[in-house]
Amino acid sequence: MPNPETDLQQRIRLALGTHPDARLFRNQVGSLPDPRTGRLVTFGLARGSADLIGWRTLVVTPEMVGQRIAVFTSLEIKTATGRLSPAQTHWLHAVRTAGGIAGVARSVADAHHLVANLPTFPPNSDGS
Fold first, then answer.
1. Is it the case that residue 13 has pLDDT exceeding 60?
2. How far apart are CA 103 and CA 88, in angstroms?
3. pLDDT, tens digit (0-9, with 9 covering 90-100), for 28-78
């Protein structure tokens, strides 16, 4: 039986793949033993980092020289009943505080909304 969160994540990845100004990549975080040495190998961006990591490209206004910039984007995918860990909440807060786009997507519509809108301050305590 497929994991509902994995299914939702895949639907969001496919839907956002059509967004012309966003590039998001799967960020698998965890640890596994090295089969040769038995030593624990940690992988992924960082503890608590979100499921989908990437950027949203913006065109800066003419008053700002018309340059394009990439805004770091971090989406944590959760089902309707899924809860954030303290490390995930901290990660989303840190990204938003730094000016990035970060939040919890519980549906494809949530993901589109997060990517389409720049963050507002102060960030919500739950990272959404």
1. yes
2. 10
3. 999 999 999 999 999 989 889 999 999 998 877 788 777 778 899 999 999
- Specify burial of residue 54 (Cβ count, 10 A radius: 0-12, 13-18, 19+): buried
- Closest among 71, 123, 126 to 104, alpha carbons compared: 126
Q: How far is CA 59 from the centre of its chain?
A: 21
d(CA 128, CA 116): 14
What is the number of alpha carbons within 13 Å of residue 69 lying toward its C-beta? 12
**Percent of residues, the chain, with pLDDT higher than 90:** 59
Q: Annotate 21-44 with three-state secondary structure.
A: CEEEEECCCEEEECCCCCCEEEEC
| Tokens describing residue 13 | 């990845």
